[in-house]
Amino acid sequence: MELIPRVQWHLLPSAPEAYLRASSLPPLIAQLLYNRGVQLDEIESFLTVDHHLEGNPFLLPDMTQAVARIYKALLSGEKIAIYGDFDVDGVTATVVVAEGISGLGGEVVPYIPDRVNEGHGLNLIALERVHSQGVSLIITVDCGVTDIIEVDEAKKLGMDVVITDHHLPFEELPRAVAVVDARRKDSQYPFSELAGVGVALKLVQALFYQDSRKERLNELLDLVALGTVADMVPLVGENRYLVSTGLKVLNNTRRLGLQELIKQSGLEIGKIGAEQISWVLGPRLNAAGRMGGALVSYRLLTTQASDEAQGLTEELGRRNKERQMLTEEVLDKVKKKMQLKAELPLIIEGDESYPVGVIGNVSSRLADEFSKPAIIVNLGDEVCRGSCRSIPEFNITLALEKCRDLLVAFGGHPAAAGFEVKRQNLAQLEKKMMSLGASQLSHLDIQRKLVIDAEIPLSAFSGEVLNLIQRLTPFGKSNPQPTFLSRQVEVVERHNFGNEGEHLELKLKQNRVTWQAFDFNSQKSAEEIPTCIDIVYQLKKGYWGAEEILQLNLLDFAAG
Fold it and tell me: What CATH number should be reported for the domain holding residue 410?
């Protein structure tokens, strides 16, 4: 049987000769920078990742008003609620602002809504709860920019609201004291892609502006790295600086909860990068909000007691396993129901049994596997909640905006969003979303693609090139792990490993260069691999005993 690629290979075009010459870098590094949209005058700041990537917090809209109102509260001894969200971005943002204001002597009340009973953003029950605790000022983090009615209700209760958010606002803004959001059309801030925790940090930075608390600000950057990476915002511009600097703080974190989380996750302090946040730490912290109250994660990030840190981390581990199990169950149900709808432009499935806490995970898995927008809905008696994940060709939030008259609430980003809809309107919403999907996607040939940065020989990785590739980190959205193609590679050794032999290890040679390579998703037996193959791969760190080594992580391969 012929060995063929599992997905379509898409090799990016070569950088212009003028760009290659002007960069004064090895051609492969210049190509990688070009692929990531780095302009010639941006190369130095991209590689050095220094504080020049930071923006002045007072360029964010309404920042001056926000700082003035918070200092008024501090001077008069008001009780301040920090109102967050239940994902990693929201929880870390809540901790950042709570610790920042506490450090200035303020009395703070953290509030993170319950995903199932309250949903995202401000809600009337929560407003009444914090008001009953004597709160007169609410600061939102990672939410609030679309909560127009709720902000008005807060004012009726006698509470002021300062909004800090990074989601796309409506044309009409809430009538808050301040709406700090770099995505506002009138924003003068040079970077619009901050995560919620990034905006939270800018607020604290502005509050600390006259206090010269630079060291205290730096201690918050481990949280900023966690929230920014977990929220999958582009790791370019200021986010690149915040995550790069934050990873250094995270790898020396003083937070007992993070130390315990890293330990129980099988990771090692000093070896935590963006990948470990995405695949290990982030999902565990997210599990609290998905499978119960997110205050477990908040407490873990703020605890001063080792025994509490251990217990909370164990609780997160249990919730994460439950999340994984439920995600697989719902995914299996949805796939079975999809069999008769394979030709539709969107995946839209709902059921009373789909837990609100995992529908986001399921929609994400489906959008990735089938390369089409996916909407999974928890059907309630009166109100249904949907979680959406999309593809670059379909802006899901813009689509929901066109269905606004049918929705109770909605919000999000072009690739990820959520909504609430009355059950009586769900069928009409599905019909309209399908129509939008058909009009925008039916004429496109959308296939799963493996985007390749460059075609190179295995000998291309000299010491200088490897060092420069390392300087491109941290990798993430808009700055992906570099992917390479090498043709006519000789397979010297091959064998399967794993519990059921599901993984593949190869020893590859080209001319005089030899590499160890691993494919954890091939499901190919060693006997099927010919002696000459073309490979698509990324460089990955591995370990031989205590020694760190580089190896190839195979993404796909075909007969050469």
Answer: 3.10.310.30
Predicted confidence (pLDDT) at residue 1 exceeds the cutoff of 60: no
How does pLDDT run across 177-211, given as a tens digit for each residue?
999 999 999 999 999 999 999 999 999 999 998 66
d(CA 209, CA 439): 50
* Helix ranges, 77-162 (H): 88-103, 124-132, 148-156
Q: Would you call 173 helix, strand, or coil by DSSP? A: coil
Instruction: Give me the domain span that covers residue 88.
Output: 53-213
Does residue 353 form part of some domain? yes
Find the helix or strand (DSSP H, E) in which 283 lies.
helix 282-290
Instruction: Answer yes or no: do 502 and 427 share one domain.
Output: no
**Residue 255 forms part of a structural domain:** no
Top pLDDT among 6 and 536 is at 536
Strand arrangement, sheet containing 135-141: 107-111, 79-83, 135-141, 160-164, 178-180
Number of domains within the chain:
3
Residue 544 covered by a domain: yes
Extract the tokens encoding 256: 């007992």
Alpha carbon distance 229, 222 (integer Å): 11
- Residue 81: per-residue pLDDT: 98
Alpha carbons 485 and 332: distance in angstroms, whole number: 34
Q: Which residues, 6 or more positions from 182, have their beta carbon under 8 angstroms from its beta carbon?
A: 60, 61, 166, 189, 191, 192, 193, 194, 199
**Residue pLDDT, tens place only, 323-342:** 999 999 999 999 999 887 87
Half-sphere exposure of 35 (CA within 13 A, CB side): 23
Predicted confidence (pLDDT) at residue 442 exceeds the cutoff of 50: yes
Look at 152-156, 385-389, 511-515 and tell me which has the smallest mean pLDDT. Answer: 511-515
Q: How far is residue 249's CA from residue 266's CA, in Å, rounded to a whole number? A: 19
Do 403 and 471 lie in one domain? The reply is no
Q: Are residues 489 and 411 in the same domain?
A: no
Report strand pairing: 407-412 vs 416-422: antiparallel
Average pLDDT, the chain: 93
| Distances 177 to 76, 137, 180, 203, 282 between C-alpha atoms, Å | 17, 10, 10, 14, 33
